[in-house]
């Protein structure tokens, strides 16, 4: 059973239960009942729906912002790990050290110049980037230390390459949108219901009331746009950047 079918059944069941209870309750009302003595619940329901929707919006914004922060942190970890590989390779012979550093530079240059654009457009990593990082790993792991000093640096180098690979995988997982479709359905329907309830409060055509209604609707639209913009950490305006690579490797062009 799909989640959409479960959602439809749950919503229809909730509405049916409420309507049945209201109908049965109205049948029990006597002829001497005075509706004027019953408090008007329209304003209360409007307020509660607005409060619940505000909580949902806040949680959604917090979730997508956390995802963006995690994506940016994975970029920082990857850049720092590769920088450590270059720095720790200084104990190796010049030929090995230069090869490791050149391959790291080639990988970072590809990420900044090519892979970043692919992530923003296709929400995926490139095979070329995977090959270049595998070459860096081979440079580190295939070398057999000749001295104790080189032996002490070997395992930390391997660990830093593994950290860069793990951060790269995390970057790839965060490349696409993270907000499920059912959540977007709830956010959009909630916005329509919340804004629609404005018309139950007998709004007149005074400038003040029309201004408040317009500002409220614009605020809802802005918050939904903010969620949509944060939902793709590498693909839209307020997105994670390649600054950690550019800061750590200043010789690489962006």
TrEMBL record:
Record key words, sorted: Membrane, Transmembrane, Transmembrane helix
Coiled-coil residues: none
TM stretches of this protein: 6-24, 44-65, 182-203, 210-228
Pfam families noted in UniProt: Bestrophin-like
Record's protein name: DUF4239 domain-containing protein
Biological source species: Streptomyces parvus
């Amino acid at each position: 059973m799909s989640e959409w079918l479960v959602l439809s059944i749950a919503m229809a069941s909730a509405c049916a239960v409420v309507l049945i209870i209201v109908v049965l309750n109205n049948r029990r009302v006597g002829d001497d009942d005075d509706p004027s003595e019953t408090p008007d619940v329209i304003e209360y329901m409007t307020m509660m729906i607005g409060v619940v929707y505000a909580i949902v919006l806040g949680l959604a914004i917090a979730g997508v912002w956390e995802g963006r922060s995690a994506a940016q942190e994975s970029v920082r970890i990857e850049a720092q790990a590769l920088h450590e590989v270059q720095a720790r390779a200084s104990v190796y012979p010049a030929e090995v050290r230069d090869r490791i550093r050149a391959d790291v530079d080639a990988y970072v240059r590809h990420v900044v110049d090519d892979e970043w654009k692919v992530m923003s457009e296709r929400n995926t990593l490139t095979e070329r980037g995977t090959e270049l990082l595998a070459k860096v790993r081979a440079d580190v792991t295939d070398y057999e230390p000749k001295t104790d000093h080189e032996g002490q640096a070997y395992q930390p180098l391997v660990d830093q390459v593994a950290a860069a690979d793990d951060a790269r995988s995390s970057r790839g997982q965060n490349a696409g949108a993270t907000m499920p479709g059912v959540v977007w359905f709830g956010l959009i329907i909630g916005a329509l219901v919340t804004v629609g309830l404005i018309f139950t409060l007998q709004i007149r055509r005074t400038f003040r009331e029309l201004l408040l209604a317009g500002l409220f609707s614009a605020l809802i639209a802005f918050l939904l746009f903010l969620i949509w913009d944060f939902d793709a950490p590498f693909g839209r305006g307020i997105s994670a950047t390649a600054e950690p690579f550019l800061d750590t490797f200043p010789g690489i062009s962006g």
